[in-house]
Design brief:
By secondary structure, the chain is α/β, with parallel strands linked by helices. It has one domain: Aldolase class I (TIM Barrel, Alpha-Beta Barrel), CATH 3.20.20.70. The chain has eleven helices and eight strands. Strands 1-2-3-4-5-6-7-8 form an eight-stranded parallel beta barrel, surrounded by eight helices. Strand 4, helix 5 and strand 5 form a beta-alpha-beta unit. The longest helix has 20 residues.
């Protein structure tokens, strides 16, 4: 398949670890899931090391970093803006670090990072991570002020939060979904104009991925929970392969 402006796919394997941790032990192994995802068409692997270690563990990050380095494939480490996480990132020096908001009581990442309000403490994190050789991404809402602030703190990448669009689309709230998608288009254009690389993710599934994948300025999607859930029914290889195909079709790929 020839795909103009091919879109990268990062597969988040956090919830493979969630299933493992429900019972303890070593099965299923997130590193094994990462290998399957890469072989099925993923371009890189994303993992979120939370402060409470509710899914991915420090040992997982050690294994993933080593395995991906050996294979020459990128690790995107999602993390909160804390001193502990900074030291872990500086130790591993992953290809990319995505700074995200984090609250212990939330089920998943809710909303985007407040870069505008937190620029004084975010900027030193961005600087140190960049000096260590990692590309720094900020997970933000498609809000003009947050995008502008992301450029000012020195980030190279923004990942636009697609949750509002996905939720509205799944719930049949057509006007809200259209408004959220319009905001994503506008945010992607603004970010690209500021020299930021544009990624997107959160809540994407087979039904919602195409309109986001069609946003010209977006170069990477990060998708995890849906793929791990779908893998229960079809297998991870099949789930990633289908998502890869839908992304390529949205970019005008022809067999």
């Amino acid at each position: 398949m020839t795909v103009p402006n091919r879109l990268r796919l990062g597969v988040n394997i956090d919830h493979v670890a969630t299933i493992r941790n429900a019972r303890g032990g070593e099965h299923p192994d997130p590193a094994r899931a990462a290998i399957i995802a890469l072989e099925a068409g993923a371009d890189g692997i994303t993992a979120h090391l939370r402060e409470d270690r509710r899914h991915i563990s420090d040992t997982d990050i050690d294994a993933l970093a080593a395995m991906l380095r050996e294979r020459g494939r990128p690790l995107n480490l999602e993390m909160a803006v804390t001193s502990e996480m900074l030291e872990i990132a500086l130790k591993h020096r992953p290809h990319a670090v995505c700074l995200v908001p984090e609250r212990r009581e939330e089920r998943t990442t809710e909303g985007g990072l407040d870069v505008l309000g937190g620029h004084n403490w975010i900027t030193p994190f961005v600087t140190r991570l960049r000096e260590a050789g990692s590309r720094v991404s900020l997970f933000i809402a498609a809000d003009p002020a947050q995008i502008e602030a992301s450029a000012h703190v020195g980030a190279q990448v923004v990942e636009l939060h697609t949750g509002a669009y996905c939720d509205a689309a799944r719930e049949g709230r057509t006007e809200a979904a259209e408004a959220a998608l319009k905001a994503l288009w506008a945010g992607a254009r603004q970010a690209a104009a500021l020299g930021l690389e544009v990624h997107a993710g959160h809540g994407l599934d087979y039904a919602t991925v195409a309109p986001v994948a069609a946003i010209t300025e977006v170069v990477e999607l990060n998708i995890g929970h849906f793929l791990v859930g779908e893998a229960i029914f079809t297998g991870l290889e099949a789930a990633v392969t289908r998502m890869r195909r839908l992304m390529d079709e949205a970019r005008g790929g022809e067999a």
